[in-house]
Fold this protein.
Amino acid sequence: MKNYLVTGGLGFIGSNFVRYILTEDETVKVINLDKMTYAGNPENLKDIEHNENYSFVKGDICDRDLVEKIFSDQKIDVVINFAAESHVDRSIEDAAGFIKTDIEGVWNLLEKSKKYGVERFIQISTDEVYGTIAKGSSDESYPLLPSNPYSASKAGGDRLAYSYFVTHKIPVIVTRASNNYGCYQYPEKMIPLFITNALEGQKLPVYGDGKQMRDWLNVIDHCDAIRFIIENGVPGETYNIAGNCEKMNIDVTEKILEILGLEKDLMSFIEDRPGHDRRYSLNADKLSLLGWKPKKQFHSALEETVLWYKNNENWWKRLKDEEFKEYYKKNYGYRMDIK
Ligand SMILES: NC(=O)c1ccc[n+]([C@@H]2O[C@H](COP(=O)([O-])OP(=O)(O)OC[C@H]3O[C@@H](n4cnc5c(N)ncnc54)[C@H](O)[C@@H]3O)[C@@H](O)[C@H]2O)c1
């Protein structure tokens, strides 16, 4: 058996990864360390909480004593660090938690990995570290030009992890994926926000002219790529993970409305996000040459995603009606059309 320390495993991608790996690989045990911020939801893993290969620790990746105890209690073979503050809008409002978790937290995990030794340390970074890409696509050697506090703190964690490979020979691999979509995504992010607003008959608040370009990666493809990289990736390397599906936000929005049989006049164009990156575009040839490509088709996977939110109203309604709605009223009420 291998012990995987998964951090942030109650969030969107982390919870999908925990379910995916426990289903696909019976030789893996998962220890899930999650602080349970607003984005960490135990409901996301309700179906596997009694799995004998799964255990949960509530706590902060910045907590030195707690992380020390996890490493000293059992041999950790692989660390997969998903834990992060992850929402750009919140980082514009207050960056403190981003710098703490996305940089200091990474450092704490690296230090313990150095002390106890690990086979792999996977730092989940993001395509946002490249900043906006006017032309062409960014490969892994492209300069990092993050332009908001979220992406800047992720770039810090990304390069800190790499420095532990160079300096301390920790077998670090960094992954930079594009925008994910799928089930269990907190409804502050664009696709679940728009699907759930549409299901509630509310406006879909599109930033600016809606022509921002993003590459869309289904979360299950992302989980599959991470597993592939744990098994086949080379320590010290960085891998872009793309969905090979670049679309303007407005086109994704229209597609959601089309799937739900709703009219385009449900879209409401609002003041753009400050420092909003216009375009992200990944060149993922390196991962493709290593042998991994995304399998999901955007249109059918988006339909599956819409259906999941339609069938799981209990999951998102509570989130939207409680903390989330207060947050948006307080911080973005002037830009949002929340009833
Ligand atoms: N969502 C995307 O489109 C996307 C794309 C590329 C990369 N990423 C990266 O993937 C990772 C996961 O993203 P997500 O969308 O699932 O985020 P999320 O916000 O849904 O989940 C983050 C999880 O981390 C936990 N967490 C936060 N701070 C913590 C701390 N200090 N200690 C322990 N746990 C903590 C939260 O409780 C939550 O469960 C992040 O590192 C993010 O930067 C996300």
Notes: Confidence is low (pLDDT under 50) at residues 332-339. Residues 53 and 266 are 45 Å apart (CA to CA).
